[in-house]
Specification:
By secondary structure, the protein is an alpha+beta fold. The longest helix is centred in the middle third of the chain and has 18 residues.
Length: 97
């Protein structure tokens, strides 16, 4: 993943219900959590939001480890405090594809 001082984005592929994949992006410079989903399900938006927030807390905790830093004085990013997770429009996947 590299050192936090030069880290721009963290990409996390997520498998939903063992059937569908979507991508979560943590933008370290803009302080945003984004997700790209080619087959969005309005009934699962709340669940995705919740799961992305849990991922943010895990990443934040993981980034407390000093091995991710060149300098001890670097401020540890508060990923869980990034702006609310936001879906990014993508092309829609056709049924059965």
């Amino acid at each position: 993943m590299g050192k936090v001082e030069t880290l721009r984005k963290i990409f996390v592929p997520v498998n939903e219900d063992n059937v569908h994949w979507y991508l979560v992006v943590f933008d370290m410079h803009e302080g945003q959590m984004l997700w790209l989903d080619s087959k969005p399900d309005p009934n699962k938006m709340e669940t995705k939001d919740y799961n992305i927030r849990k991922m943010a807390m895990y990443i934040e905790e993981m980034l407390q480890d000093k091995s991710f830093y060149d300098y001890e004085t670097t401020v540890r990013p508060k990923v869980s405090r990034f702006a609310d997770p936001k879906p990014i429009e993508t092309g829609i996947q056709k049924a059965g594809s």
